[in-house]
Amino acid sequence: MRIADHVKDAVRERADLAEVIGYYVPLTQKGREYKARCPFHEEKTASFLVHTDGRWRGFWKCFGCGVKGDVFKFVQLIERVSFPESIRILAERYGIALEEEEDGPGARAAENKRRLLAALDRASTLYEMALFSKSELGERGRAYLTERGIEEETARTWRLGIAPPEWDRVGRRLREDGFSPEVLEAAGLCRARKGGKGQWDFLRDRMIFPITDAQGRVVALAGRSLPQPASDEEEGDGDGDGDGDRKGDAGPKYLNTQETMTFHKREVLYGFDKAWRRSERPERLILTEGYTDVILAHQAGFHGAVACLGTAFGDEHAKLVKRVGPALTLLFDGDAAGERAALRTIEVCVRNGLEADVVALPEGMDPADLVVQRGPEPFAEALAAPMGAIDFCVDVVKSQEGEGANGSRVADRVLPIAAAAPDPLRRAELARDVAAKLGFALTTINERLATFIKEQARRDAGSRRWSGQGGGPRSGESRRKGPHGGAPAGGPAVFANESPDRDGSFEHEMRGDGPAPQDLDGYAPAAAQKPPGVLDRSVANLMVVSPAELLAEYPDLASGQGVEHPQCRVIVRVAAEMFEAREDVSPQRVLDALPEGQREAALEVLLLEEQPDERPDLQAEVQQVAARLRARARKEQLRQLRAERAEALRRGDLERAEALFQQLASLATQQSSP
Q: Among 34, 85, 119, 640, which residue has the least CB neighbours within 10 Å?
């Protein structure tokens, strides 16, 4: 099925772009536009613009990573859904009735997904009805919830339920409701009996916890086993295939329905939709270990609690957390297994640019125990006094190493976590924390950390080589070079005696001096400069008359990248700063913003080009200039790679030389492509 065109138009017309994006990302209004930090890549300064008026009305673009689109594209990316699903989400939000038409394979897949979701939702309703029925089964389930401290209102909010012990009671009801056996199996609700003689219910005699995605849709079900009364120990073959008459389920304590086209454990956090969809979102999320931990935390007023679903916290989970904020509190059981899980989670957080701290619970207690037995106040006090990530890691490693743990060995086990941070400043903060915690000199820790960073870089290069990716950036890593043409943003930086930027700006930033003088000025006195080339003149002039279009085609210009002539580079950067500040950009305003001694040289550059009213097709010129800048960047990258490979061969580093050769071959192929 496909959505009718007039429905798409109605959704597009009614959906307010700033309102939709503002639901996911905090927006700051700048005149007729809005600005934010891009939700699709790491950045410290806002480069994500939302246009709600004028020529670019209904359009958004990030000038950092280059991603752009309309309201449907934004929902597609942020919710990770297909185009038709983005329309459905917005139509539901704005109360627009959907009309659908027959279409091809894509629509059929969407229809199959809707059937799975409908079956899961209906099954969840049946389990919920059973829990709140007056039957013996319902009373048994409610007694269990009371024992755990879960109130009835909370149970209804979370749609908790109970599965009857019979082999096929729920499946029969679902088939009577019109769901085919194929859909029930695909949704993970039923399994086929041996020999193809009917189906049996996957979840039986269990408390049911519906698992919802960020949109609040039931995408899977989790079942917790219940204590078995002696009278329920009935005969059966016990092989779990549903061919016998045994009731109940003697399987593991927790059981999830299988992964399907609607459900991937690594992409879902239990309770996330409750935190995400609140009118007042929590400042940060709290990662716990179990379903009841999450539910009881929310019941006590801690609405940021979430949990993983039988899998370790991973990169996809981190992306979800970052929708709410840049920080995560880890709340794990106070035992050895909980400590190991916390260490792994901290490493994932650091790798994904999240700040993490840890709340250490009393030994033998989980979050649910703490809330139920001691109340919300001690829970709030524990959350208000967390341990820093490095302090926690050092303490755990020391405990694992035993009495008299060697400080150097502890540092070597903790520093790889710090080395995983994509932001050099964050790595520097973590290094200082390690030095302070262990009593080492900061220079010593920085030197050791630099070793781990280099080792990680070599491992990354090796994995790219053997995976056939050449020397390109890793998935999720910025493809742009750093502000001085060095390593890609987010890539490994070097500490202590080596600066990541050839002009030493990193050292200036760490001292608090601001950017290095070369980076601020970027040119020699006018008398010593050569005249700018045609391309640089064109870039400088287009930036003062058409900055929006030029930056849209070549975002790297915002930092002056790609412009070789120093004076032209200054013009470009001043114009880009004005544009980013939402100020009017014009040749006169750019000249006025320059120091007195630089205006004459800048004026000569600007007067060499035609005025905009003398240009018949300004957009075509912008595209041509952007294409030439991209070609120049590729050429410079080839030159740098050849020089690095020659140096690697000179040192006898054949592995590095081979990796650089693969990068050269890949880049040369791209350059020769039409």
A: 640
For the chain, list residues with pLDDT below 70: 1-2, 54-57, 99-107, 228-250, 279, 334, 460-530, 588, 596-597, 599-600, 603-604, 606-616, 667-674
CA separation for the pair 153, 156 (Å, rounded): 5
Cα 319 off chain centre by: 2
The set of residues, in sequence order, having a beta carbon less than 8 Å from that of 378 and lying 6+ positions away, is 370
Is 554 in contact with 630 (CB distance < 8 Å)? yes
The predicted model scores a pTM of: 0.62
Helix (H, G, I), strand (E, B) or coil at 640: helix
Which tokens hold the place of 489?
């943003």
Task: Name the token pair of 116.
Answer: 């799975």
Residue with tokens 């929590």: 282
End-to-end alpha carbon distance in the chain: 37
Distances (CA, A) of 456 to 137, 536, 656: 55, 38, 14
Task: Dig out the tokens for 260 from the structure.
Answer: 């399907």
Contact 208, 145 (CB under 8 A): no
Query: What's the confidence (pLDDT) of residue 445?
Result: 92
DSSP, res 367: H
Judged on CB neighbours under 10 Å (0-12, 13-18, 19+), 389 is buried
Measured CA to CA, the distance from residue 308 to residue 275 in angstroms comes to: 14
Q: What is the reported pLDDT for 422?
A: 85
- Strand (E) or helix (H) holding 541: helix 534-545
Residues 511 and 504: their CA atoms lie apart, in Å, by 11
Tokens of 32: 């007729």
- Compute the radius of gyration of the chain from its Cα atoms: 30
Residues 6+ apart with CB under 8 A from 259: 220, 265
| pLDDT attached to residue 230 | 52
Q: Is 627 helix (H, G, I), strand (E, B) or coil?
A: helix
Half-sphere exposure of 68 (CA within 13 A, CB side): 18
Instruction: Tell me if 470 sits within 8 A of 483, measured CB to CB.
Output: no
Task: For 481-499, give one letter per residue: b (16+ CB within 10 A) or e.
Answer: bbbbbbbbbbbbbbbeeeb
Sheet of 28-30: strand order equals: 28-30, 33-36, 48-51, 59-62, 68-69
DSSP string over 315-366: HHHHHHHHHH-SEEEEEE-SSHHHHHHHHHHHHHHHHTT-EEEEEEPPTT--
> Encoding tokens for residue 450?
């630099």
Whether 426 and 389 have beta carbons less than 8 Å apart is answered as no
Contact criterion met (CB below 8 Å) for 651 and 670? no
CA distances from 174 to 122, 128, 180, 627 (A): 8, 14, 8, 58
pLDDT of residue 16: 87
